[in-house]
Amino acid sequence: MNNNIYLQGNYAPVRNEISEPRLKVTGNIPKDLSGLFLRNGPNPLSVLNEETHHWFMGQGMLHGIRLDSGNALWYKNKSVDGNQSVANTSVISHAGKIYAIVEAGSYPVEIDEELNSLETKPFYGNKNEGFTAHPKLDPRTGELHAMCYDYANKFDTIDYVVIDKNGSHKKTQTIPFESRSMLHECAITENYVLVLDLSVTFSLEKLGSGYFPFSWNDEHQSRIGLLDRNDESKDVKWFEIDRTYFFHTFNAYEDHNGNVVVSAAAYDRLFDKDWNGPFTESPPNLTRWVLDLKSGNAQSSKLDERSVEFPRIHPNFITRSNQFGYALASSNTQQPDFKEIIKYDFVNDSSEVYQYGPGNFGAEPVFVAADGGTGEDEGYLLSLVYNHETDKSDLIILNAQEPSSGPMATVHLPQRVPFGFHGDWISI
Ligand SMILES: [Fe+2]
Fold this sequence. Notes:
Elements: E1 19-20, E2 24-27, E3 35-42, E4 60-68, E5 71-79, E6 90-94, E7 97-101, E8 109-111, E9 136-137, E10 144-148, E11 157-163, E12 169-176, E13 187-188, E14 192-197, E15 200-202, H1 204-208, E16 214-216, E17 223-228, E18 237-240, E19 245-254, E20 260-267, E21 285-291, E22 298-312, E23 324-329, E24 340-345, E25 350-355, E26 360-362, E27 366-369, E28 379-387, E29 392-399, E30 407-412, E31 422-427
Antiparallel strand pairs: 1-5, 2-30, 3-4, 3-31, 4-5, 6-7, 7-8, 9-10, 10-11, 11-12, 13-14, 14-17, 15-16, 17-18, 19-20, 20-21, 21-22, 22-23, 23-24, 24-25, 26-28, 27-28, 28-29, 29-30
The protein binds fe (ii) ion.
């Protein structure tokens, strides 16, 4: 037994790739959920050095559950194996194709609906390029917006990439970026893309000693940049904020005063003393910044003392003022503590909780709109749940309008799905 928690329990890799058509279901799967629920995360089958192993390292493994007209057709898991890429962080579907994706220069891997990796190259443009784990799809235009970094090859710049609704490369805008901050995500509003230049930066020293090469950096002032989406001649407008780091935003939008509002699950400190993962130094809290374009100042407010990660919203509300957000409870304990889903109502300043129950630990809650639904929370939350006692996982489906009432359906899987990172629902 090693001491690295990210190699133990449900962080540990699974050894078997299986395909199971006979799935036990409790409750009733909504008939309008026809498609594929896909999850991605690292599955480090061979670890050279357990001491330096970081949660973010390891070849990606996909886990898929195929639903159709109220039935669970199958569960499969397969390693991502294409395009010389670990592709271990997330999945997207765009312009009729599905990709496993990751940041920091590694390439997206196209996969088919049976989770097989394909050797499709390039992803966009004329040559294979690294991408990001968190592109943002603008629901108004169908365009995919991404902030991409590859500090091994582009030491002082990042690329703002736009891919059009047909999957074709629209533009790449290179931006000076000397901090080499860990640019895990971006956010978009109607007119801007947000550049998140935060206080975790590339560390050559860590890289040299085999560790995950990013570190908390007190010397680096955190700042959020606004880049005009439509005018490349304009420089990034920067707003300094208290030192922080966040992997994930809930959303960003422009308010009626023209200010940019962005909320995220923000850490006061991480990757400082703990070089193996994010959770032990400070818990991430729902925090909101208002960027005042007239004064150039940013105001921040912590909106909840509870600790949350992996936020999701209704995808049609990206760039728009949103009432609801969903996130997975987190904590700053040594052991995983993903014990509940919190649904936030930002308009009424309230929240509702679904508790997974004793011995159960959840994952990112993915919002899927109901067919024909018009309300912002009219739909479902899909979340994997790991049970410590059975050492297996379930897929639960909650009514997003009342998650505290418990699962409408539970699909029991034949093995556990490691905590992993992100997933998505692909309508088929
Ligand atoms: Fe992420």
